[in-house]
Amino acid sequence: MTYDYIIAGAGAAGCILANRLSASGKHTVLLLEAGGKDSSLWFKIPVGFAKMYYNPTFNWMYYSQPQKQLNNREIYAPRGKVQGGSGSINAMIYVRGQAHDFDDWAANGNDGWGFKDVLPYFRKLENHPSGESEYHGGSGPISITPMKGETHPICDVFLKGCDELGYPQSDDFNGPKFEGSGIYDVNTKDGQRSSSSFAHLHPALSRPNLTVEHYALVDRVLFENERASGISVTQHGVVRTFQARKEVILCAGAVDTPKILQLSGVADQALLARHQIPLVKHLPAVGQNLQDHLCASYYYKANIPTLNDQLSSLFGQFKLGLKYLLTRKGALAMSVNQAGGFFRGNESQANPNLQLYFNPLSYQIPKNNKASLKPEPYSGFLLCFNPCRPTSRGHIEIQSNNPRDAALIDPNYLSTQKDIDEVIQGSRLMRKIMRAPALKSITVAEVLPGPAVESDEQMLQYFRENSGSIYHLCGSCAMGADVLKSVVDKRLKVHGLDGLRIVDASIFPNVTSGNTHAAVLMVAEKGADLILQDA
Ligand SMILES: Cc1cc2nc3c(=O)[nH]c(=O)nc-3n(C[C@H](O)[C@H](O)[C@H](O)COP(=O)(O)OP(=O)(O)OC[C@H]3O[C@@H](n4cnc5c(N)ncnc54)[C@H](O)[C@@H]3O)c2cc1C
């Protein structure tokens, strides 16, 4: 069968492309997704995040290679395996990043991707309750909800503590003032997840020129000489091929997009030779430049009730459930990451370089992936940090030429001195904030790492033993001008090939300073415009 556009991966980016490319009715579009539909109610209810965290039906549940700098631990890397992708299972925190994140993209040979260029796309994609303004959009498909005014009362204690220490406050991390403590926005509408699947794809499903195939694992891109001519998938055990009249667009995310390219013969020639894959194009940067945010939590026991108290009792759960059903508000309508912000680890930083989360509950992520996420059995809360712009770079590599084998993920965490220094800065910042009078007055004890962990070495060791991914893998098919160091050009076309683009988190030249979902949605909106301009 032949379509104008074939999109591989119905994730955060792929659903937007499917909508935008099929909207005019002029082009036929095929959207291929390895997972199933997002019909379960748990994708709608924000608290469903916990249900999907270790759910092998809807989550690829990848693990990294053992990380040398993290005590050789294999770090959990959940990825959505369902319509909507990771955008269907994520924590919905909506932060664009700092202006200089995108100015650095532009400086990497990507004119047209500086902050002033991408801001119109951020505005286009969102429906913000404050309406149209310099920084916000009021009529886009993705609904944004500020959690301000709805968060657990303990979040106000955090904000007061930061204020006591003289830190600035930000009313809106996506507005003119990024730096400071504040309350996060989430991408929800009336207490329900506003994913690109719900906001873009569902309303487009009745279009006759849009076809969606589920349980269709893309094995490889097919080429005629140096033009991508179609795609080969395995669906319910049967191999099927589809032809593309105009373009094949890879949207399988930062782990699977480079994997598909490598399986298709577009990668470093030595890697391809090792796996007996015929060479289509020697592109050594495919799979390189992998980045992520690495975080660690500090756990506290409080002398006032926290969300732990409500979530630990059946009556508390019942009350929260009833509130959600009746008003679509309350803890079940929100992310667990409610307060936080962006801070400078020391005075010499030109920009905020640490992101913080203050959660009104505390939970340990169970190591056993058959267990579920449960609050700690006391009134607790946690404070968590990650460096905003880590400089460690890792890679994605196929382990065989079998598309059913997961790729090897090596983020190479904490492999630069800058990243190590920022871990110390972040650890010291946590302790400083917790010494603020407001926070001291509600804290019984630091449960973890605990007061015995005091020196820089001990704090670093705690981080090495306990840190985890905050699930922002990106950069593995970076956009840039240098064909040895990047994979796509500024129009998102794969270097040296025709009819093949990448539109997902893998094209980030550098990770953004906040959570990555918003920037992926922007990339998809701008990518759709670029594709339609060339149609
Ligand atoms: C648990 C979790 C929590 C997160 N929390 C937040 C948050 O609060 N805020 C935030 O900003 N970001 C968050 N993120 C990150 C954010 O969701 C991702 O950055 C974003 O979804 C990436 O979008 P993408 O389109 O690149 O990939 P994805 O959304 O992952 O989509 C890729 C799609 O491709 C499909 N696919 C993969 N391989 C194939 C194949 N071979 N054939 C066919 N289909 C394939 C996948 O099944 C998936 O549907 C979180 C991520 C996770 C996993």
Task: Walk me through this protein's architecture.
InterPro entries: FAD/NAD-bd_sf, GMC_OxRdtase, GMC_OxRdtase_N, GMC_OxRtase_C. Its cofactor is FAD. Residues 3-295 form the Glucose-methanol-choline oxidoreductase N-terminal domain. This is GMC family oxidoreductase N-terminal domain-containing protein. Belongs to the GMC oxidoreductase family. The chain is globular, with a radius of gyration of 22 Å. With 535 residues, the protein is an alpha/beta fold. Helix 1 runs parallel beside helix 6 (196-204). 27% of the residues lie in helices and 21% in strands. It contains 14 helices and 26 strands. The chain starts with a strand and ends with a helix. Strands 1, 2, 12, 13, 14, 15 and 26 form a seven-stranded mixed β-sheet that branches. 53% of the residues are buried. Strand 13 and strand 14 (227-235) form a beta hairpin. The structure holds flavin-adenine dinucleotide. Flavin-adenine dinucleotide (FAD) binds at residues 8-14, 32-35, 78-81, 85-87, 89-93, 217-218, 251-254, 256, 260, 471-472, 504-505, 515-518, 520.
Query: What ranges have pLDDT less than 50 throughout 5 or more consecutive residues?
Result: none
- Bound chemical compounds: flavin-adenine dinucleotide
Specify the biggest β-sheet: 7 strands, mixed
Globular, elongated, flat, extended or rod-shaped: what is the shape? Answer: globular
The share of residues in extended strands comes to 15-25%
Distance between the termini: 20 Å
Over the alpha carbons, how many angstroms does the gyration radius reach? Answer: 22 Å
* Count of separate DSSP helical elements: 14
Mean pLDDT: 97
Structural class by sheet pairing and helices:
alpha/beta
Helix content: 25-40%
The tally of beta strands, per DSSP, is 26
